[in-house]
Amino acid sequence: MAPHQPRLHPVILLLPFLSLVAHCPGSHGTPALPPTYDASMCVDSPPFWCGGVEIHYPFYLANATADHGAAAPSFSCGYTDLKISCQDDDGETNKTPVIQLGRDNYTVQAIFYNNNSLLLADTDVLRAAAAAGDCPRVRHNVSFDGAWLRSNTSSSHDNNLTFFFACYPKLVGDPGWAIGGSDTEKHRINCGEFSNDPPGGGGDSFVFVADELDRAQEYVLAAHCREVVTVPVRSEVLDLVMASDRSVLARGGYGDVLRQGFELVWTRSTEDQCYRCESSGGRCAYGYDKAFLGCLCHGKVGEPYCKNSGASTVPPASKSSHPGPVLRFLPLVYTITNTSAAAACLF
């Protein structure tokens, strides 16, 4: 009998897959930008003037966005939130630059490109002041998402006014009420032309500087009023108006403070490819969803920066408290059929 031969079983070798995860422009369901664009959409040289305000990149004009339909996304030459509309005041000569924060309009009083700041005033307040004199009715808080814009908290020129509108008269008639060491009556808005209509109607209204109310007192006062609005103002203007008498604020002085506006600063994102684009001499194209789409390079589109510029595209050190981009080293996915595609994506 032949010796017993061991039975051979097929051996399956499980080889690890090497995979490559790469970011390709337009690979997340967003169509790529066309290879060329109308260079005039970038407000740069010469700049555009509206109402005495110089406008140029990273700001852009509302009517200067590119729309290529379904073939490519709509995009701006500038940061999405820095869109300015140059509006006609009288239909002919007077123009007003207006920017939107949230859903509300703000008049751009000045842009300071040397320190990335801009001076804004509530457009509704300016119009109300023109109609109602010294005591305009404030309609809304100031809100923005902070993608590019933020309050200038690094300076001492930032303060707030808090308004309490349409408050119950019994609050004023109670002699025992005292807030911040002074009676409530001192803060009641006392202007003949002031009106709570619309939206609340009736009652009395009050205005306080930020340091005149603590949270507990604010809560109690708000319980007696239909609406509370807080708006930023410039400390130097506020101090000047109240220099001789703090009660002048409620007698119409707050209108002067509001008309002088408030300051915001803008910053460049270091968490997308915009820094590489701008360092190479390009202008960043953003979609309405605030996604970086490509680099606009004098009529041509670069991804993600302008080639052969000779400029450094090393990211700058972040000035914010947020960490910079995180590089994650992922396993490589490699198959024979996708080698060329992966290489094209990388280079």
TrEMBL record:
Its main location: membrane. It is a single-pass membrane protein. GO terms for cellular component: membrane. Pfam families: GUB_WAK_bind, WAK_assoc. Keywords: Glycoprotein, Signal. InterPro entries: WAK_assoc_C, WAK_GUB. Residues 191-299 form the Wall-associated receptor kinase C-terminal domain. Residues 49-122 form the Wall-associated receptor kinase galacturonan-binding domain. Residues 1-29 form the signal peptide. It is found in: Membrane. This is Wall-associated receptor kinase C-terminal domain-containing protein.
